[in-house]
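lol so apparently i was supposed to do this last week
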Amino acid sequence: MENAELESILASHGHRPSELLATLQDIQGNENWLPRESLAHVAAGLNVPLSRVYGMATFFSSFSLKPRGKHVCTICMGTACHVRGAQRLVEHVEREHGIGPGETTADLRLTLETVNCVGACAMGPLAIIDGEYHGQLSTQTLGRLLKKLKG
Amino acid sequence: METRFHSVADLEAYRRQLQAVRGPDRKIVSVCAGTGCRACGARGLAEVFREEIAKSNLEVELRVTGCQGFCERSPVVVVQPQSIFYQRVKAIDVPEILTETVEKGTAIQRLLYTDSDGRTYEREQDVPFYRHQTRSLLAFNGQIDPDSIDDYIAVGGYAALGKVLQERKPEEIVDLILRSGLRGRGGGGFPAGVKWQSCRKAHAADGIRYILCNGDEGDPGAFMDCALMEGNPHLVLEGMILGAFAIGFPGQPKGYIYVRNEYPLAVERLTRAIEQARRCGLLGKGILGTELDFDILINKGGGAFVCGESTALMASIEGFVGEPRAKHIHTAEQGLFDKPTNLNNVETWANVPLIISRGLEWFTSIGTGDVSKDPWGGSKGTKIFALVGKVNNTGLVEVPMGSTLRHIIWDVGGGPPPGKKFKAVQTGGPSGGCLPESLLDLPVDFDRLTEAGSMMGSGGMIVMDESTCMVDLARYFLHFLADESCGKCVSCREGLAQLCAIVDRICKGEGREGDLELLKDLSTTVQTASLCGLGQTAANPLLSTMRYFEEEYISHIHEHRCSAKVCKTLIRYVIDDSCDGCMACNAQCGTKAIQGGKKARHTIDDSLCTRCGVCMDVCKRNAIHVES
Ligand SMILES: Cc1cc2nc3c(=O)[nH]c(=O)nc-3n(C[C@H](O)[C@H](O)[C@H](O)COP(=O)(O)O)c2cc1C
Ligand code: FES
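anyway here it is w/ flavin mononucleotide bound
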């Protein structure tokens, strides 16, 4: 990320340390992950220790400190989805694409993530692929959806 | 059309104007587009309606609403003025709905709801799922486009605020909430009025008091707050503005809503609602021309369960990681940024405008117990539950406090799906517990559930049948909590790790004599030595399953058997005689564990089998079974 862009994000939050969480969310929103250099820049920009920024980035599960793939498949592991077999969806992706939760394929094409409930529990098991919600999934449908992804 | 209201009279005049053009005979097609219906393509459906209506010359309003609750049958569409209820609607049905139902007023049989006895229902209010509910909070979701403040005002929105600003004193409102017996819907069931009173009384040197809304909804498997924030954001805002007046006026009350990161649609809708309210003079300086100044900011969480805990939530808003602190000093006195702070759950806030507009008697007539002398004396009002899992009608259910589990799961929920047998219901999420069939007549209120070893929690209700293993479920929650523990207390951090290790062992068939005693012992330590509610309640799912389903633990430990056929090390896949050797499973098996050529009956080499279940999914003859 360009320094100018980082600066504008910091400025939009008034360089306030109390808005550290929102600042990091915006950076990840732009960059898709949190590069080390950006964290250092934020620490300097807000005049807080890098450890505090790093602590924040590792505490919350929505942040990624590794580059994420071009496509992101997020499988819900909430209780409702769990009792309807969400684990099998995760195992399917592990088997077919060789990646576990939090991992990305070597060609940076696909990232697998898990989440604890997205608020569509009646539709479980459920996955979000590149922002689109897909409910009542079987391993076969998930397989088809992932095969259809372009590029 | 938004106008700025300079007085309560302005607002009321505007409401009358809106209501005059919105007669009861107006034709409306309302399409549910909550997160659940979106997962079934509702957004596309709404677009098709928009295009088709534009092409036709029909006088009909399209209303895209938040969650209407009957998620099982999504996407759902309701046609007004007749209230004809359509379910599982597809894009190709749209032209027919417009010509047959909107234009001619006739119902299309195949889109109506049919129950398991084959009875068909035409009107929304007759469908058993709705008929057995008492919908006061959720009633508006179908009548409101969440992006339209006009829709909210037309159904009586902000009238409670107007009335209060014109006629009442802040102390009277605190007193009203106290006497209503409204208890917090976020899990603890603490009387809202008591909290409001202490925050109002707390010393605020610079007049600043924080009014917070907890929209973190951390219980995985629950989406009541989501549906309120997405479907009727102004109701939550109105509750908070009323709270700001009651708790912080005169002074400088300031508001925050903390919304969970996983609810992007809720954030979007709340953001828009706040902007509208500001433009209309319902938020900001001099609300409705009075002396009340109050504004609300939104804070997005980062995906941590513990941030739903009050002190962790405040730390998170302050820009620190969400670690709870000891509450030697109450947050009502020193909370967010060390100012007096009042935190309530989304559903708690949503109740406030209704209590004010419909009155104390209405509210206290619903629910259990007697709160006239003591706000702890009962559970009043309705409660929304997210009914999910192995049940026919999954969705959002609003019933009076004190309804029985049987009423909720059978009358409203339609019972377990055909061929399945009810086994247990989990309430209260990771802090709650599992209740067996013998407790189905338990009235659901704050106190009865706690006595039974579970919890109201925020309202998640997950129905389980015989294919759910109770040991595996306890294991699921323990791992969830171990992952989500912030790590501050040794008892919670290490205790949960050890509980996980023991239960993992039991699920692998490596349980030992004495494990159950060890689990109980360790649970007590985690409960008593942990600082916040996470650790204090973390053992509930484990203890309640041990209490009501002990035989399952025993068969895992002593017989290495999992009767639900879930725990992988304890099950085997076998192929029976009906196999015709079609090779489908053989071709899919990732570990080459299936032997047998074309037309020859296949067999599974247990030592190679990873129990992934793919073979069972692809077998057309149902020849593959699980044994334990
Ligand atoms: C670990 C933990 C998680 C919690 N999560 C939530 C939550 O997601 N939503 C919520 O409203 N309350 C949650 N609470 C309860 C809050 O601490 C607090 O009691 C509540 O928001 C107060 O509002 P109420 O009195 O209106 O219920 C949680 C508590 C604990 C200990
Ligand atoms: S449990 Fe999966 S969406 Fe709620």
